[in-house]
Please model this.
Amino acid sequence: MTKTAAIIGGGVIGGGWAARFLLMGWDVRVFDPDPEAERKIGEVLENARRSLPGLAEVAMPNEGALSFHDTIADAVIDAIWIQESVPERLDIKQKTFAEIQAACHPGAVIGSSTSGFKPSELQTGTARPNQIMVAHPFNPVYLLPLIELVTTDANNAELIETAKGLLTGIGCYPLHVKKEIDAHIADRFLEAVWREALWLIKDGIATTEEIDNAIRYGFGIRWAQMGLFETYRVAGGEAGMKHFIAQFGPCLQWPWTKLMDVPELTDDLVDAIADQSDAQSGMHSIRELERIRDNNLVSMMRALKAQDWGAGALLKAQDARLADPVVLSDQAVRTVARAVPLDWTDYNGHMNEARYLQAFGDATDKFMELVGCDAAYIAAGNSFFTAETHIRHIDEVHAGHKIHIDTLCVMGEGKKMHLFHQMFEGDRLLATGEHMQIHVSLETRRACDPLPAVAAVIQKVAAAHALLPKPAGIGKAVGVKG
Amino acid sequence: MTKTAAIIGGGVIGGGWAARFLLMGWDVRVFDPDPEAERKIGEVLENARRSLPGLAEVAMPNEGALSFHDTIADAVIDAIWIQESVPERLDIKQKTFAEIQAACHPGAVIGSSTSGFKPSELQTGTARPNQIMVAHPFNPVYLLPLIELVTTDANNAELIETAKGLLTGIGCYPLHVKKEIDAHIADRFLEAVWREALWLIKDGIATTEEIDNAIRYGFGIRWAQMGLFETYRVAGGEAGMKHFIAQFGPCLQWPWTKLMDVPELTDDLVDAIADQSDAQSGMHSIRELERIRDNNLVSMMRALKAQDWGAGALLKAQDARLADPVVLSDQAVRTVARAVPLDWTDYNGHMNEARYLQAFGDATDKFMELVGCDAAYIAAGNSFFTAETHIRHIDEVHAGHKIHIDTLCVMGEGKKMHLFHQMFEGDRLLATGEHMQIHVSLETRRACDPLPAVAAVIQKVAAAHALLPKPAGIGKAVGVKG
Model:
């Protein structure tokens, strides 16, 4: 059954939550008194639609239904997750919780996007404290997986587990913080860095652009994949963490940071920051910067996915949860169903030719797996290598569009497995890929027959597919009409 | 003429410098009294060889010569860059500078890898203060581009410009810090975050793994591409930086960070960190973690390169500086010369089939550019699309190996341009790619003739290439012997 989320408070954060729930197949009911809310959430949703689906190597659920409501009571009907993203004032938040709890299901999760308040502060004076927890996301909410889930002893243990499961289901990583503190974990770091940055600007040491470059050309790239401690563990070398701390720890006693004081935000300092930021980024509109950011994030997260590491490992796990089971059949096999990722397009604005082959390669991998040439078979020293490929490009396709590939086994005898892939967007044929796979020993790197069980499956499916009508374009050379 | 660098002090940092200089074609002379220095630098160099060359889309210079020397005086002979990476004690550093300056060229740059000392402290009491500047790198030095170049008024302005040029030449980004402070810029942030992290562990709020996840699943990925201020500029939306500071700034007054105090590094705290780090990462050796880290960094930096942003934009600029000019010829045209990047290999351990097509696509792009279908031609609304491709995989190739592609124009008439690419490692044929390109209007997305100037060049080169011996494999269908 379709799940329902209520979004109380739109804006960038509420809109990001709405987009993530919708694209993961949830219905979303929004309450936001801002007359611009619908437009604003629409803009976030547009960004999310172009970036999120292509993060997956599998088909995403069908998008849920989005509706806007005049009252909180109306918005929370049927919701099993209610996300509060109203302004960061405790009195406003507590008033909002009272309205939510007067109308919502007592078993629903009420998550707060607060970056500063402790859950115990949010729970104080509410009808059912056990429902309310901090679920603090990071912008853009539709792409970044981290959610700080902060709970108290008042929270129901079962509901916490439910919350973790639901967050994981929409592709998030719930980091369960069991001991509440102001600002949770990540924002404490952000605060510390922000404060230091203000001093550097105030003292004229560096501009906003120089500070950004100091971060993104150096430790920022490191942190994107390993964080702080694992990075230092590697830096410390074989001597280990204790050695690293012995080396680095004493520096903490040195007068290196300005962090003992809070710099006053005078008009001069604010102007200096705003002017420097204009000089650095003013050539791009915020909308352009959002798209640049999302292109970068998607590209880097997909790069990490190919390495099965960090945020990329989360994406791989999400794919495994979302993937529809595929079985061999006497008909063409649906080996790929996915959206075109942002990083698969090129200067012509469409999917780059090499990405067609990447998708066909994925189709071949899936077909291999189905005939028994799976990870264990490969680990045991056998595999198929591609000997030849013939791609015919029939039509264009663009980022975010849904594609699928149907695969026929044209021939399977001895060392050879001859496949024919057809790539579609809906009914529209985009390309065909004809592949000759050769079975090899990974030890000798030479051709050899598949193991008997795999050979038998290939022969059986090839015999069945031989009875199907032969698609156009098989067996042609380049430049010869199909 | 080959440039020479002297590396005074090996280890992880000095070794990283050595590797970067060597792989960018410099000769490197090392002084390090550690009897293990040669082995240690060899290990860093091995990591660098597998990761750095593939960051480029063009051929790297030939690797320089590495030599080890018993005295500083011997090491600094002929060096135009001398990099000091000795232990972080001012007396040791100053003694080292004295030995260096007694033997080195007075016009050489003497860079210090210090993460904490100010250049004025390093210069004090030296024979020629104008030579000595801070050139603070980030680990792994062979991959991360940031160098904090910190100078004083004692430094010669011309030498500073020389230093910037040499750093840029080896693929680094010199961030010139003109007003010296302890710990420069980036390490002030690292200090602030490290200190906060120690408190979180000491107070039992989070483990090392939870802290790393809080960073790498959230703001870490953001910072890898935009840093702090540009990230917040986007978050602030159309209202701009002033609005953002008005919203976020006051939070600084709240008691959110523990940064007023320095936590004492008791045995208990050190043990807690070491134990948690073992639990988090102990399943991998440091050597494994280094390779995982480098795979991740290369993949993300190359992802950013495809977006021409951040550290990736630096790589693109570096390619432009390194690229050898290519011209059309009556012989096959050398359209690609590069190393196989780490992220082009797959579970079979060799270059993935889709990456062969990516390299052939790059070869096609270069050939298009040479016949006049360049960025301006495409911006004016014309391009070639690939209609068909036939790839024959002849042999395997692995990460870090040098490949090149020679391109023939088999036919060029009307809308059609028929190319035949041959990919080699040295003399070994790896694959052929036969491509039918169709000239299109980017407005109508339909086939049309090229503009006359481009058509004339294509016809001319096709006529010349028609006189060459026809390579095996042209015009064959999949499964037909070439």
About this structure: DSSP finds 16 helices and 13 strands in chain A.
